[in-house]
Q: What sequence folds into this?
């Protein structure tokens, strides 16, 4: 796979024109729809702190979720090829974004907190070590400039 490129096409469409476009700061909704060929649309908006709809995903949610999902998919792959049987996985991940004086800002960190359940007979030490390798391989984590920490919790079934 070395040297191969992969392309990802999406369309983001603003759906928040309430009749007068962006004629004023409060005159429009921040609602949007994210689409990709052959996939269901994702309803999006701004963070509620920026006049967005709290019932819709915002870009900040999706960035944290992308980091979490990428880590999980690498981790499950590495466990499968290394004889570690995972029976459950969830990650209550969180990200911190700081605004600056100009109104812009950036993420300062994301913390992944995978909660992994192993089948009887799986090696917990190996399961922990594979989180480090998954983090090193994650395409999304390798693409961001802020720290992504992994605080895994491993338990056995029963």
A:
């Amino acid at each position: 796979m070395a040297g191969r490129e992969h392309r990802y096409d999406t369309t983001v469409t603003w759906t928040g024109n309430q009749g007068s476009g962006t004629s004023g700061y409060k005159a429009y909704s921040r609602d949007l729809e994210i689409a990709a060929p052959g996939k269901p649309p994702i309803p999006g908006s701004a963070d509620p702190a920026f006049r967005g709809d709290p019932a819709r995903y915002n870009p900040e949610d999706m960035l944290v979720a992308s980091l979490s999902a990428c880590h999980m998919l690498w981790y499950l792959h590495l466990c499968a090829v290394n004889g570690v049987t995972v029976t459950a996985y969830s990650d209550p991940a969180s990200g911190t974004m700081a605004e600056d004086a100009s109104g812009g800002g950036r993420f300062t960190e994301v913390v992944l907190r995978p909660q992994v359940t192993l089948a009887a007979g799986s090696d917990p030490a190996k399961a922990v070590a594979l989180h480090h390798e998954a983090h090193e391989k994650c395409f999304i984590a390798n693409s961001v400039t802020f720290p992504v920490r992994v605080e895994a919790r491993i338990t056995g079934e029963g």
Remarks:
- The CA atoms of residues 132 and 150 lie 8 Å apart.
- Residues 59-81 form the longest helix (23 residues).
